[in-house]
User: What shape does this take?
Amino acid sequence: MVKENEIKNEAQVEKINWLACSAPYEVWLNAGSVMLDARSLLGLFALVGRKANVVVEDGVAPRSFQKLVAQMG
Assistant: This one.
């Protein structure tokens, strides 16, 4: 599943990282040709000010995924 999200500032990066580390499944962010593990705080800082797609495996429950993305915003 994929959902677009805009990463506006450093505080949001830290929140995304915390949520990804708390999720029981892998969470990735894709921006153009770059695919980053959302558990990598250093990599996420490169996405500040950019739009990125939040990506998880297809087996993740849609409600769980929607809730995760809503909390990232």
